[in-house]
Amino acid sequence: MVRPLLCSGPGLIGETTYEIPRENGHGDDKMPRPIALFGLGGFVLEAVMHSVCRRGTPARLVAACALFSFATLARAADGPAVFGIPVDFILFALTLFGVALFHHHVLKVALTGLAVIAIYKILLTGFKAGAGIAGFGAHMAHEWVLLTNLLCLLVGFALLARHFEDSGVPEVLPRLLPEGWLGPFVLLVIIFVLSGFLDNIAAALIGGTVAASVFKRKVHIGYLAAIVAASNAGGAGSVVGDTTTTMMWIDGVSPLDVVEAYIAAAVALVVFGIPAALQQNRHQAIVRNLQAAHHVDWVRVGIVGAILFGAIATNVTVNLKFPEAADHFPFLGVAVWVVLLAAVPLRKPEWSLLPDAVKGSIFLLALVTCASMMPVEKLPPASWPSALGLGFISAVFDNIPLTALALKQGGYDWGFLAYAVGFGGSMLWFGSSAGVALSNLFPEAKSVGQWLRHGWYIAIGYVVGFFALLLVLGWHPQEKHKAAQIDAPAIHAAAPALTLIAA
Predict the structure, then answer these.
(1) Closest CA to 201 of 340, 62, 394, 357
(2) Which residues neighbour 137 within 8 Å (Cβ) at sequence distance 6 or greater?
(3) Radius of gyration of the chain (CA)
(4) What is the rounded CA–CA span in Å between residue 366 and residue 371?
(5) Per residue in 353-364, is it b (16+ CB within 10 Å) or e — as a string?
(6) pLDDT at 470 (0 to 100)
(7) What residue segments make up the domains of the chain, in order of their start?
(8) C-alpha 465: how far from its chain's center?
(9) Among 142, 232, 256, 376, which is most exposed with the fewest C-beta within 10 angstroms?
(10) At what angle are helices 221-235 and 457-473 packed, to 10 degrees?
(11) Would you say 192 and 234 are in contact if contact means Cβ atoms under 8 Å apart?
């Protein structure tokens, strides 16, 4: 029997008082906060709240919503359980807790969590594809296209970002951006627009490269979170802007239904973009050197354009002409590397970036693999509250199987779903591939506590945007599409013809 995602059960709503450190290091203030407690899941939630939310009520609310949503997801499946929570999810929650707590050792934590979860499932519970080592092998054979695409994209776009940086274009941009806080805000708008037809990893890295140049590497962590949010929000309403929206397109959802997500995304951009821009302007304003002559390397600009065009063309061609082949070969990742290597005689990439880029990529692949092994079989009944919750779940869980299950189940308003699963991963730095890629450029962003503390307005923007869409268009559920006859694992395998995976 498969239990629903949001099931009823015994719970305790308690109020716990934590000591909140001030910036000066003194912990004089105490603030009560209501928290949801149920069994071991409540204990993990409380521990994470205590560790990552040092200051600021919005940050606490972000953590509470994300982790409470994950805890409800953990009650979706059968199997060995502790206080009603499957052990699989407890191990995954502890892995995420380790990533949040030991942000200087995230790769070791993620690999350790992956090893523990894999051994547990090999020895005790098995996989959808079978039991034991054979089942694990079959599972990984099912996931290899997705993981290879991610690896190729994350590493390839890291080299693309350096090509763009060395082109000289970022040095010219300070002359073009407005003065004051409008400059950082306009940059976020540019990232938002670019992400509508570019890969969100590329959009985030290009935005981060520009920010590093115009702010002379003094980029506020909150603004880094806003760059990730802008790249994810920009793809939420485009069927070529995100993996999840591409899945909907393949499944038969009209692009006009998906584009409605831009109402919510645009509102969210204003809500998080203005405070992020003000924050960045106070931290470091745009630095202009009007007297310096900047040389633009048009060859490198051409290489960047060719890589992006190759990715877009491959995505559209595979999804329109050969969708059944997408689960057998990592077309998108290979296309990026074909163009990269073909351009080597013209301009050599910065090969020295590869070790760090590969390490960052392996971290995300480990979390994605952990998420893929979770026994999630069913979503709650489709409604706008459940769609809202999926956005918070996407901050800690792979959004591809969530989208696949929603398409199979039907009854969702697809514009709301596109916005929720596409934007939700922005709330944590490891919640999306764009966040992981940007954090490889700015290692200081690899702190859940700092991300929540300084980027609290991302979650606020998500919620305000969601309700703006609800107010403007209302909730109009739609039935299943053609993928109703396709198993969720098959959709999960076919989807990576584009990019984003929320961890």
Answers:
(1) 357
(2) none
(3) 22
(4) 9
(5) beeebeebbbbb
(6) 95
(7) 137-353+390-497
(8) 17
(9) 256
(10) 30
(11) yes
